[in-house]
Amino acid sequence: MATGRIVTKPFRIPEHPPEIEAALGQLAPAVQEAFPGLPKARWVALQLLNGDGRVEEAVRTGEIGSLSANESAPAIPAAMPAAAAWRAILDRAGSLRWRLSPEFDDALMGSIYRAARGIAERSTATGLRRAKFDLDRTLDRVLTSRWLGFPLMLLVLAVVFWITITGANVPSRFLASVLIGKVHPVLQAFGAGIGMPGWLSGVLFDGMYLATAWVVSVMLPPMAIFFPLFTLLEDFGYLPRVAFNLDGMFRRVGAH
How many helices (DSSP H) and strands (DSSP E) are in the chain? Predict the structure, then answer.
């Protein structure tokens, strides 16, 4: 490959979203005109739209021009374009970048990932590995669907909260009956038996102990149910899908 005997055919993403294609259609010809023979003018234009500082510096210094159309030949430094030429390219790139939507990076990454997914699907092994791969993608399509994602999310969370609230009633009643119904009277009787002053008995048994017993009997059961359930949802990979569903909503308020 270094000598040019083997001609490579690098993969090129055939098409980006229309907004990006329109911007590339305006910027790539200017790059090609300023640096004749540049083999990757479209890629350079894309990096300029993306605000790549290294590529901007290479355009400013003329380093980009050292690439020739014949990549197997030694790089020959080309004449640096006039300052007006590279300034015009950078100014146009900056202007086009400001006109692109805030989702420019997401759209660009989306086209790259779609192409990568297509390559992966064509080269994935068959059999059980293929079935597992398809199952994962099927779950993604259902759980992150535009129409089913939010209803399923609300349903799953509602079930988790229902199990937490309803299931916590039984252990809460049991703890309350033991800690408050049985242990508390025993402590009061113990204080009275040893002649403990009423104010001290009230602080220790009716204040500190009783408050702690209520908190334990009310808060411990739902926490012991809720957190393991959420841990299972995270381990099964559902919570990342919930985060994906909510990303658009968080983006609108600047919290994505």
Answer: 11, 0
